[in-house]
Amino acid sequence: HAFDRWPLDSCFRMVLETWLSYIQPWRYTDFSSRTQLEAQHSDTDLNKRVDGRWDNFVEDNLLFFTVLTSEFIPRIYRMDLTSPYSAYMVYRVSRVGGR
């Protein structure tokens, strides 16, 4: 509902970040098991793979990945992409799809 009805301004970022946090829980776990080199390059390494133990989570929550992404795409067409906040939101979602 929020993806469809939320205002088209920068306050949507709160909804977006909540969604992105939910669909990427691995970003908030296992900090102690990451090597220092991996931690330094985690934002720039686009080929980084998610650990296979998260496969069940992704399967169980597939609709959160697919349906909400398909809800977000039409929203992009209504957003002012000249705004840095809006452009950054699109960038954040596109990074998830690239991993």
UniProtKB/TrEMBL annotation:
Keywords: Membrane, Transmembrane, Transmembrane helix. It holds the Pfam family mit_SMPDase. It comes from the Eukaryota. GO terms for cellular component: membrane. GO terms for molecular function: sphingomyelin phosphodiesterase D activity. Its main location: membrane. One of its GO terms (biological process) is glycerophospholipid catabolic process. It is found in: Membrane. InterPro entries: Sphingomy_SMPD4. This is Sphingomyelin phosphodiesterase 4. It is a single-pass membrane protein.
